[in-house]
Design a protein that fits this description.
The protein has about 210 residues and is α/β, with parallel strands linked by helices. The strands form two sheets. A five-stranded parallel sheet has the order 2-3-1-4-7, sandwiched between helices. α1 crosses α9, α2 packs across α3 and α6 crosses α7. It is globular and about 45 Å long.
Length: about 210
């Protein structure tokens, strides 16, 4: 079983869902920069306040902020799953100085499907649960099933921001696919269809 894994793919491709399944089923410690940054924003930490402006506009948070955060989290962990990091080749090089990545899994989904997924996404501000108005609606409209908080649409899930996020991804993150492919560590898996079928393909790639 590959021990140190990077999940790649555009916003809305299902990285977070698959990372959660890998953590629960296979014991990976999931490290998500998105979750950590949103927590920092909620807690109004210095990092959170610096990052908020970038996140709200759909731009990438600067490398120095992200790398500093991830270095703290990676220290001492053996079996890790990186969700949403690295996002640039520069970040990948910085990561390589800290840990040897065993496998990069690229979840591939086209832009039209991604826009549909993200603009219909609703999030819980308290427990970070995520819903989809069509595919995974809450039992009660606008209310989190897990903690009862009022759901909201994140600023970065509006259509204009989603399109910008995808453009940013294509420009900045897409080169990572080539980066890991050249190292012989890349596996690409289609991210459309049944979640369990996608997960089965990921699990097979990890063996």
């Amino acid at each position: 079983m590959k021990a140190k894994v990077v999940l790649l793919g555009p916003p809305g491709c299902g990285k977070g869902t698959q990372a959660e399944k890998m953590g629960d089923d296979l014991g990976y410690v999931k490290l998500s920069t998105g979750d950590m940054l949103r927590e920092a924003v909620r807690n109004q930490t210095e990092l959170g306040m610096k990052a908020k402006g970038y996140m709200d506009s759909g731009a990438l948070v600067p490398n120095d902020l992200i790398i500093g955060l991830m270095k703290e989290k990676i220290a001492g962990l053996d079996k890790i799953l990186l969700d949403g990091f690295p996002r640039t080749v520069e970040q990948a090089d910085a990561l390589a100085e800290q840990v040897e990545v065993d496998l990069a899994i690229n979840i591939d989904v086209d832009d039209a499907e991604l826009i549909n997924r993200l603009t219909q996404r609703r999030s819980c501000p308290e427990c970070n649960a995520v819903y989809h108005l069509t595919n995974k609606p809450p039992a009660k409209e606008g209310v989190c099933d897990k903690c009862g908080s009022q759901l909201y649409q994140r600023d970065d899930d509006t259509e204009a921001t989603v399109k910008n996020r995808l453009e940013v991804y294509r420009q900045n993150t897409f080169p990572l696919i080539e980066y890991y492919e050249k190292k012989g560590k890349l596996v690409t898996i289609p991210g459309v269809g049944d979640i369990e079928e996608i997960y089965a393909k990921i699990k097979a790639a990890l063996e």
